Amino acid sequence: MRASTRIAATSSALAIAASALIVGTTAGTAHAAACSQSYLPLPDPHCTPGSYNPDVTQSTINSTICVSGWTATIRPSTSYTNKLKAQGIIDYGYTDTSMSSYEEDHFVPLELGGNPTDPANLWPEPYYGSPTATTKDGVETKLKNAVCKGTITLAAARNAIRTNWTTALQVTGIG
Question: What is the rounded distance in angstroms from the CA atom of residue 169 to the CA atom of residue 165?
Answer without folding.
Answer: 8
